[in-house]
Design goal:
Number of strands: 18
Oligomer: single chain
Strand order of the largest sheet: 5-6-7-3-8-9
Mean pLDDT: 85
Structural class: alpha/beta
Distance between the termini: 45 Å
Radius of gyration: 23 Å
Number of helices: 14
Largest sheet: 6 strands, mixed
Helix content: 25-40%
Shape: globular
Strand content: 15-25%
């Protein structure tokens, strides 16, 4: 692979060369041009000009975009509505080429027990490894992977790390991207840095990595807006929920001996907890332990919410209540919401839709609603993208917009499932600092799922370990 004087969109590469068998990790912030560089290597940029452009022929590519395409394809095939059970999805082995010839590779990836599972039964880490296996079994010599460790717990990161190290040992050229310094793997032989649309460092890995500080020093959006800017005209209406006695409700979520599962197999059981107003709660545990399932129950997006002793805002689930009456007091950011938000619409409309709890904007809105959404776009540094279709934004910018969508109404309960997934280090810290302000000022009660130990902030007063 060799690139000389190449220009595309927000990127200019004066020179980059990766030889067969080398293992590269390229580091950059979300708007540094690193996503364009990834697309260039993956053969997904059509408007590039270059003095020399020698790219791998038919490389293996694993990206957020292709992961989304796979999810949407599985969604189209979902027959749950016609079955008496949840459709597990396409069998994992069906994604591989000549699966019977790759027993050693599957074993090296620790995926032997997963080949007969359906796609929807796989954990996030397992589905990521399945995507890698699907590419490798094509007989590729080069593999390009976008932010492989995002959204994985420590154990899954270690498993994926070993799998990628196996690829390197087998002579496959590896090029991965990373947004955080902690995601640079030990097996990479070469490292590079991208900032302001240029490669500012590229070469063999050495003990001196001081250049990373410069790479990750890009100023993040200023989420630290004043309380007066956030809460206009007093407290949000969502704060005025009352229980049957007409007194302000203190209990937001209560689950007693909770359980949930798929296809007859329990994901978790005998789970008890209670979240009260301003009881900011951190949820941790390995991929596949049921964290996202638990949040889906609370949000009313999993049928187990009707089979459990579950109370939301003091209301017993399954007693004829409207889920939309409950959701109007929730703000939600999750991988499921991100995957499902594939409807047409602008970035501005996506944020406004948070006021109506809809995927897409179908309700009339006021100039004041638009003004509030524009302020959030300014805080995320995306004001210039107000009229850009949401699906054309990068994965990271989409995630920032979805965070703004959840925060726009300052909900009574703010549910954040891996909210910072895909964000670079400055953006992650900015979001966490802002959430700390939200918690400190009592604007919302936070229910937060994360795998990253550097996100376990002191404002979390409760911890659910699953």
């Amino acid at each position: 692979m060799k690139i000389i004087n190449a220009s595309a969109h927000d990127l200019f590469v004066d020179r980059f060369e990766a030889r067969p068998g080398e293992a590269w990790c390229l580091v950059g912030t979300n708007r540094s041009g690193i996503d364009t560089f990834f697309k260039l290597l993956a053969g997904e940029v059509s408007d590039v000009t270059a003095e020399l452009l020698e790219l791998p022929e038919n490389p293996g590519v694993v990206s957020f975009k292709r992961q989304q395409a796979l999810f949407e394809e599985e969604l189209r095939k979902d027959d749950t509505d016609y079955l008496d059970r949840i459709d597990p999805g396409t069998r994992a082995a069906s994604f591989l080429h000549n699966v019977e010839d790759h027993g050693d590779l599957i074993k090296a990836f620790a995926m032997g027990d997963s080949m007969d599972k359906g796609y929807r039964q796989l954990s996030t880490g397992q589905s990521r490894k399945l995507m890698l296996l699907a590419q490798i079994t094509r007989g590729i010599s080069s593999l390009v992977v976008q932010a492989p460790y995002e959204g994985l717990d420590r154990a899954s990161c270690d498993e994926l790390d070993k799998a990628l190290a196996v690829c390197h040992q087998w002579g496959i050229q590896l090029i991965i991207t990373a947004h955080n310094r902690g995601d640079i793997p030990g097996w990479c032989t070469h490292v590079g840095g991208i900032a302001q649309g240029r490669i500012v460092h590229a070469g063999p890995r050495t003990s001196n990595m001081d250049w990373i500080e410069t790479i990750l020093s890009t100023k993040a959006p200023d989420f630290k807006a004043s309380i007066n800017e956030i809460v206009q005209n007093g407290k949000p209406s969502s704060w005025d929920i009352c229980n049957g006695n007409g007194e302000p409700a203190m209990e937001l979520v209560r689950l007693q001996k909770g359980s949930a599962g798929y296809d007859g197999k329990a994901v978790f059981s005998d789970l008890d907890f209670c979240i009260r107003t301003h009881d900011h709660t951190l949820v941790t545990g390995p991929n596949g332990c049921g964290k996202s399932t638990l949040l889906q129950m609370i949000m009313g997006d999993h049928p187990a919410c009707y089979r459990n002793d579950l109370r939301i805002f003091g209301i017993q689930r399954g007693t004829g209540e409207s889920i939309w009456e409950l959701k109007q007091h929730m703000g939600i950011v999750s991988p499921d919401l991100h995957r499902n938000y594939h409807v047409p619409g602008t970035t501005l409309h996506c944020i406004i839709s948070g006021l109506f709890d809809s995927i897409g904007l179908y309700n009339p809105y006021t100039p004041k609603d638009e003004e509030k959404a524009m302020k959030w776009l300014e805080r995320t540094g995306l004001a210039q993208e107000a009229h850009t279709p949401f699906r054309r934004l990068s994965y990271a910018d989409q995630r920032l917009v979805l965070i703004a969508r959840a925060l726009i109404k300052m909900p009574r309960l703010l549910i954040l499932d891996e909210a910072t997934q895909g964000l670079d280090e400055p953006n992650r810290l900015a979001v966490l600092d802002f959430l700390e302000q939200v918690a400190g000022e009592g604007l919302s009660t936070l229910l937060y799922v994360s795998h990253r130990e550097d996100e376990f902030r002191s404002f979390f007063t409760s911890h659910i370990r699953m």
